[in-house]
Amino acid sequence: MSHLDRLLLDLLRHHHQVHDVLVLIYLSILVFMLDMLVIALATANNTSWLHQLVIIVFLVGIGILLVGMVLMAAELRTSHYSIQLAVGQNCRLRKR
Fold first, then answer.
1. Is residue 1 classed as helix, strand or coil in its secondary structure?
2. Are 78 and 14 spatial neighbours (Cβ–Cβ below 8 Å)?
3. Which of 6, 28, 73, 87 has its CA 20 to 30 A from that of 35?
4. pLDDT tens across 33-63, in order?
5. What does pTM read for this prediction?
6. Pairwise CA distance, residues 27 & 30, whole Å
């Protein structure tokens, strides 16, 4: 496998990871918007189970956002490491 093929596979893997993280972050935004709707229903109806649902939906949104942020931090770390390796390899190849 050539050097360029490995770089392209690595780039494709990073692209998929960033895509997955963005989907999670947008999903958490959608959950927070749903939570706003549940808050409006809870204030209009004043029922106790809707108040509990507000907290549950909010915590689900926080959980999804937390997973997305952890995955993004891991992706930033691995992509930085991959770029350092690729630049190091290219510098070594040019010295020859």
1. coil
2. yes
3. 73
4. 999 999 999 999 988 899 999 999 999 999 9
5. 0.78
6. 5
